[in-house]
Known about the structure:
Layout: E1 6-7, H1 8-15, E2 18-21, E3 30-31, E4 36-37, E5 55-58, H2 60-67, H3 71-82, E6 89-91, H4 99-108, E7 112-114, H5 119-133, E8 137-147, E9 150-156, H6 162-171, E10 175-187, E11 190-194, E12 202-205, E13 209-212, H7 213-217, E14 225-227, E15 230-236, E16 252-255, E17 258-267, H8 273-288, H9 293-308
Parallel strand pairs: 4-5, 5-6, 6-7, 9-15, 15-17
Antiparallel strand pairs: 1-3, 2-7, 8-9, 8-10, 10-11, 11-14, 12-13, 16-17
Amino acid sequence: MSENGLKVSKFVSLFHLEVLNKGSDYDEAMLTVPDLNRPGLQFQSFYDYFDPRRLQVVGKAEITFLKGLTSAQRRKCFDDLFLYDIPALVIARDLDCFPECIESARDHEKTLLRTNEVTVVFSNRTSEYLGRFLAPCVTRHGVMLDVYGEGVMITGDSGVGKSEAAIELIMRGHRLVADDAVELRRISDGIVGTAPEVIRDYIELRGIGVINVRQLFGVRAIKTFADLDLVVEFEPWDNNKFYDRLGIEDHFTEILDIQVPIVTIPVRPGRNLASIVEVAAMNNRHRKFGYNAAQELANKVDLRADGLQ
């Protein structure tokens, strides 16, 4: 997430918008909320619940309403709107812009834009993009992959074998999301992981160096983002530590105020970490659907014990 938001000028470039008028704050203005506003009520002079931080979007309905007004009434509608510190006004459907709108935008030094997209399509696409861009974000050290449809982030100390396990998983047909640094964003009630743009598609292997996964294995081996479903923590094997051998209880770690399932995998020579991660991902999916093999076994043992008494 940008500390201040997405610059309007950057947004114009990303969405290929036509600039009808550059406001005085065009290069500094920020989009700081993902919600958009269609100012139909504002054209009726209703500003009681108006949020000027939102991008303002005018579609066919608003244009049709404004056509029924006199030139002076239209000018007042735009003057009232541009009195607020809005980031920009966007005209959808490539509709003609009223002269009163252009004049008012110039007089108030406000940014006026236009898109050829249908209003609903533009609004949905913009809200979705801003929702991701502006979402709360943290960066964690680790490797994230899509394993059997489960978003798995492998964490652990440097050199414990995260990237080596990731390469074997990729060779088995799973997909890399991010290596070394994973950007995690809270979107709605879930966590979405992706890679910082500068290191996307790259993975580091000690003894070999940096490789481009997309170039070596093809686009099938890459996924741009994935929901975070499970954290797998690698740690060196400690003979003095007790490791859970049944797995009846679920364990969680908190990321951006959301509880994410976590399993700890002790690492020592001879353990096939890639296979263990695959099983952990499949087992996590089973648990989400209500099946717990360890609990089932415990219940069978209890029933057998009760029968012997």
